[in-house]
Amino acid sequence: MKLIRYGAVSAVATSVSMIVLGALVATRTLTPGWANIVATGVGTVPSFELNRRWVWGKQGRRSLGGEVAPFAVLSFAGLALSTLAVSLAGHWAVGLPTVERTTAVEAASVAAFGSLWVLQFVLLDRLLFASRTRPPAMIRG
Does the structure show a pLDDT above 60 at 18? Predict the structure, then answer.
């Protein structure tokens, strides 16, 4: 069930990021690399909150050092890989019409983040949002 929820959160965050990325690339507001940085930053916010609350059921205050910073590091590792991918795709597609150029850039972003998707789930599940409670001690008789 957790993996299904994680997938749903990824779909929401990816949709948000792709809308922002597509708009910035199609309008040529930013280069593909910079557009990807902005889009990833925007998509990271719902990703963190939905993963923390809905997927892993965490309540209460967020820990800046224990949750927010490590999540940001994971997100920005994906950002580095995807920015490289979209920059290369943008250079490759520079002479293509707007729709094809935007599609190539978005495909590169999805491929880069997709390649890290399972690894991120494992890290979030086992380390970042892992339950910190210990199992009850066995009673000796």
Answer: yes
